[in-house]
Design brief:
With 607 residues, the chain is an alpha/beta fold. It contains 19 helices and 25 strands.
C-alpha cells in the first residue's frame, strides 16, 4: 500500500516536514517517492524511484519552496517502479497534482476517453487519470473541490487521494473510498496522511476520514462532506495516546494481526485486477502442454490448492512443485511445451528464481504471480500479475496466501470458460461467490476471534498437533500447520486425512489435539469417518466447519464456525483465516513474538 502525506503550515515551509513524514511511513513498504509544493503560483515537484534517502541524495527533497504540499511513497500496482510512474502525477498544464493510494478499476476506459479529448499521459499508472479528470472539470468552471467531487464519482475501485492546484494554492482536497485516510490538527498546521505515524510527532489530535467522504484542508482547519450528496459532516478530533510503534500498527499489538485483519480489503483489491492480464495469462495457461506451479512455503501451499481448482474447473492437469525440488525432479524434462507459473510474494525468492532460470534455458514459457512489481520475477516473466495485497511486514505470510489464492481462482475460472468444461450457470455462480469471499472473511474476523483466543489458551501447553483435511482442504491443513510451527514453535503434522491411518495415527493418544478442516463438500462423509478414528483413540477434535453443520459440532470437542455456502474450490481462502488467528494467539500464549519468529526472514534470497 502506498503512503500519502500532505500539510499546510502557518509559519514554515513544508518540504522538510513532508520528507520526515514520508520517512515515518517507510514501514509500509515502497519503491519510489515524490513531493510537490506550491509557491509563486506554480507547482514544484521532485520524485524518483528508489529509497527515500537515495532520492534525497540525488534531488534534495528539502529544497522545495512553499507552505503547502503533499508527498507520496509508492508501492507499484500499475506500471513499473520508475521516475515517470512515481507520484505525484500532474495534468497537462502542470497546475494540478495528485497522490493516490488504491486501485482504479476503470482507469483504462477513462484514460482512452481523456486521450481522445487530447490529453497527454506521461506515466503508465492508473493514478494519472485523476489529475486529468480534475483538469477537465476545472476547465468547465468548477473550483478544485467541485472538480474532485465530480472526478471521484467517476472512479471505480479503491482510493485515498490528496489533490493540490496552483490555481487554488491555499488548500488540499482529499477523498477516500476503502483506502485509509486520516487528518491531524496541530498548532503550526494541518495534516493528512494514510497512517497516523506520519504526523504523530507533530500532533496527536486526529480525525479519521470515513469511506465516501471528501475533505478540504486549509491553514485554519478542515471541512468534511459526503461525496454522494455533499452533505456536511461534523466530526470532532480525538486525542490519540499511541506510541509511534503502536501507530505504525494502527493500534494493533503486532503487524501479523494487523495484516490478518486487512484481508477483507486485500481480497477486494484482488477483484480489481486488469481484465486484459487475466485473459492473457489464462490464454498462456490454456496452451501449456505441461503446467508447473512453482513456489516455496506459503506460496507453495497456494499452488497446491490451485492445482485442485485448475483440475476441477478447467480439467487442466497441473504439477505443484516445491521450488527447491524443481530442478532435480523436473529440470531435464522441461521443454518448449512446458509452462511455469512461478508464485512468489517478493518476486526475489532464490529457489523459485533458480527453477525459473532452468526452465527458461530449456525454452519453457514463464508466467509470474507476485506482490512486488519490478522484482526479478516480473522482469523474466512473459506475463505477470500483481496480487495486490500491499506490503506484508510480518514474517509469517497471511494476506499473501489468501490474495494469491484469489488470483489463482480467478485464473482457473477464466481457463474453465475458455475450455468450456463447466456450464455457464456454474461459472456465474462461482464468479459471484468469489466476490462474496471478502465479506465472508470479514464475518469470520468479527465473530470468531474471541473463541479462537480462548482455544489458544486451552491448548497452549500441547506439544504437538495434527492438521487433517481431504481434497483441497489438505492445502489448508498444510498452511495452518506451517503458521503454528513458524510463530508459536509448536511441532505439527499435516496429512491428507485418508493417509493418517498409514502411520501418523500411531502418535495419537488421550488428549492429542487434531484439527480437522471440514467444509461441506464431497469429502465430508469420509472425513467424518476419519474424525471417528481419531476420537476412538482419545484425540481432542478441533473442527473448522460451517455454522449450521450440527453433525460436525456434535463430534468435535471445539468448533470454529465459518459462513455457510462456500464452494469447495474457494474454501481454503476463508478456512485458513481461523488457523492464522489460532497460530497468532498460540504464539502470544507461549510468549513468542509473532512478528519476528526465530531463524526466519521475510524474503529468502539465498538457496
Amino acid at each position: 500500500m502506498c503512503g500519502i502525506f500532505g500539510c499546510i503550515l502557518k509559519n514554515s515551509e513544508v518540504a522538510s516536514t513532508i520528507h520526515s513524514a514520508l520517512k515515518r511511513l517507510e514501514y509500509r513498504g515502497y519503491d519510489s517517492v515524490g513531493e510537490v509544493t506550491i509557491a509563486d503560483g506554480r507547482l514544484f515537484i521532485k520524485k524518483d524511484s528508489g529509497k527515500i534517502d537515495e532520492v534525497h541524495m540525488l534531488h534534495n527533497l528539502d529544497d522545495l519552496p512553499g507552505k503547502i504540499g503533499v508527498g507520496h511513497t509508492r508501492w507499484a500496482t500499475h506500471g513499473a517502479p520508475t521516475k515517470q510512474n512515481a507520484h505525484p502525477h500532474t495534468d497537462c498544464e502542470e497546475q494540478i497534482a495528485v497522490v493516490h493510494n488504491g486501485i482504479i478499476e476503470n482507469f483504462a476506459e477513462l484514460k482512452k476517453e481523456l486521450e481522445d479529448r487530447g490529453h497527454f499521459f506521461k506515466s503508465r499508472t492508473d493514478t494519472e487519470i485523476i489529475a486529468h479528470l480534475v483538469e477537465e472539470k476545472m476547465h468547465e468552471g468548477l473550483d478544485l473541490k467541485g472538480a474532485v467531487v465530480e472526478t471521484v464519482r467517476r472512479l471505480e475501485g479503491s482510493y485515498a487521494i490528496a489533490v493540490v492546484s496552483s490555481k487554488e494554492p491555499d488548500k488540499i482536497v482529499c477523498a477516500r473510498k476503502e483506502s485509509p485516510l486520516t487528518l491531524g490538527l496541530g498548532e503550526n498546521g494541518v495534516y493528512c496522511a494514510s497512517d497516523i505515524p506520519a504526523f504523530l510527532p507533530l500532533t496527536n489530535k486526529v480525525v479519521i476520514v470515513e469511506d465516501g467522504e471528501l475533505v478540504v484542508l486549509r491553514e485554519n482547519g478542515y471541512e468534511i462532506w459526503k461525496i454522494a450528496d455533499l452533505k456536511p459532516v461534523i466530526r470532532e478530533p480525538k486525542i490519540i495516546d499511541w506510541t509511534p510503534e503502536m501507530a505504525e500498527k494502527q493500534g494493533y499489538p503486532h503487524f501479523m494481526l494487523k495484516e490478518i485483519m486487512e484481508q477483507p480489503l486485500t481480497l477486494r483489491n484482488t477483484l480489481r485486477l486488469q481484465e486484459h492480464y487475466l485473459e492473457l495469462m489464462a490464454t498462456f495457461l490454456d496452451r501449456a502442454g505441461q503446467l508447473f506451479l512453482v513456489a516455496c512455503g506459503t506460496s507453495y501451499h497456494a499452488c497446491l490448492a490451485a492445482s485442485y481448482i485448475f483440475s476441477k474447473l478447467a480439467f487442466h492437469i497441473t504439477n505443484p512443485v516445491i521450488a527447491s525440488e524443481f530442478n532435480e525432479q523436473h529440470g531435464k524434462s522441461v521443454n518448449i511445451d512446458s509452462t511455469i507459473l512461478a508464485v512468489s510474494q517478493s518476486g526475489e525468492t532464490a529457489d523459485t528464481l533458480a527453477a525459473v532460470e532452468t526452465a527458461r534455458q530449456r525454452a519453457a514459457t514463464i508466467l509470474g504471480l507476485t506482490n512486488t512489481i519490478g522484482s526479478t520475477l516480473t522482469r523474466v516473466s512473459r506475463v505477470y500479475i500483481g496480487q495486490q495485497s500491499g506490503p506484508e511486514i510480518g514474517v509469517a505470510a497471511t494476506k499473501t496466501f489468501t490474495a494469491q489464492l484469489s488470483v489463482l481462482s480467478q485464473l482457473a475460472l477464466r481457463l474453465a470458460k475458455m475450455r468450456g468444461k463447466v456450464s455457464q450457470d456454474e461459472i456465474d455462480f462461482l464468479e459471484e461467490k468469489v466476490t462474496q469471499i471478502p465479506d465472508m472473511v470479514e464475518t469470520i474476523l468479527k465473530t470468531q476471534m474471541e473463541k479462537i483466543r480462548q482455544l489458544a489458551n486451552k491448548y497452549k501447553d500441547k506439544s504437538c498437533f495434527f492438521f487433517l483435511g481431504r481434497g483441497i482442504s489438505y492445502a489448508t491443513a498444510l498452511e495452518g500447520r506451517l503458521k503454528l510451527m513458524e510463530i508459536a514453535y509448536v511441532p505439527a503434522i499435516a496429512f491428507p486425512a485418508g493417509e493418517s491411518k498409514h502411520g501418523p495415527i500411531s502418535l495419537v493418544e488421550q488428549g492429542f489435539p487434531v484439527v480437522f478442516i471440514c467444509p461441506k463438500d464431497d469429502t465430508r462423509k469420509t472425513l467424518i469417518g476419519n474424525i471417528m478414528e481419531m476420537k476412538a483413540r482419545g484425540a481432542l477434535i478441533i473442527a473448522l466447519c460451517e455454522e449450521d453443520d450440527e453433525e460436525i459440532k456434535r463430534l468435535a470437542d471445539d468448533c470454529i464456525e465459518v459462513p455457510k455456502g462456500i464452494p469447495e474450490v474457494l474454501s481454503p481462502i476463508p478456512y485458513v483465516v481461523p488457523l492464522q488467528l489460532f497460530a497468532y494467539y498460540m504464539a502470544l500464549e507461549r510468549g513468542c513474538d509473532p512478528d519476528k519468529p526465530r531463524n526466519l526472514a521475510k524474503s529468502v534470497t539465498v538457496k
